[in-house]
Amino acid sequence: MSKPRTRPARIIRSDGWTLPRQRLFLKMLAVTGSVEKACAEAEMSISSAYRLRLHPEGKAFREGWALARHASVHSLREMAMDRALNGSREPIVDNGEIIGHRIVYNDKLLMFLLKRYDNPDFEGTQNRLVGNFQFLEASNDPEPEAVAHPVEAEAETATGFALE
Predict the structure, then answer these.
(1) What angle do CA 24, 151, 3 make, to 5 degrees?
(2) CA atoms within a 13 Å half-sphere pointing along the CA-CB vector of 50
(3) How many CB atoms lie within 10 A of CB 73?
């Protein structure tokens, strides 16, 4: 009778998607809404971020990604509101040279934002969203190390979230 095959322990690479890098990526994605900028901040490639998101054991990262994208709407709304109130700076060009700048206001953008966000349900939605981001707070991050199986232990160590 042969022994059952066991999988070797999975190694979390110190230069890979460690928990602190995942957390930094998700924070930056929530702030900027840009995968490219979040990857640059985490010093990871865009393709590796998408691979981790699609990985079968990346459920927690996938969920964090969705929450971060949802949160980025708040930042984008703030930028749009700032642009609607303060205008945007455009160059004045003469014969191919920039000779100055002017501030351009967009009243249609302002009216849209007022109509869309002047509603009592909006604040409650934002408060619920902020409550969902508690998992991004610093915790006792594990050092890169060998992680024993089962799959649930790997996923929890790699992502900081327990699979349910």
Answers:
(1) 145
(2) 6
(3) 13
Alpha-helical runs (H) found in 87-119: 107-117
For residues 55-62, give the mean pLDDT: 87
Name the residue range of residue 47's domain: 15-159
Residue 2: both structure tokens together: 């042969």
Give the 3-state secondary structure of residue 144.
coil
Number of domains in the chain: 1
Q: Is residue 58 part of a domain?
A: yes
> pTM above 0.70?
no
Task: Classify residue 35: in a domain, yes or no.
Answer: yes
- For residue 96, is it within any domain? yes
Q: What is the mean pLDDT of residues 55-73?
A: 87
Q: Which of 4-18, 53-67, 83-97, 125-139 has the lowest mean pLDDT?
A: 125-139
> Is residue 152 situated within a structural domain?
yes
The three-point CA angle 12-13-16 to 5° equals 110
Task: Give pLDDT tens digits for 82-131.
Answer: 888 888 899 999 999 999 999 998 888 888 877 777 666 655 555 555 55
- Which residues lie across from 10 on neighbouring strands? 147
Taken in order 134, 137, 141, 147, the sign of the CA dihedral is: positive
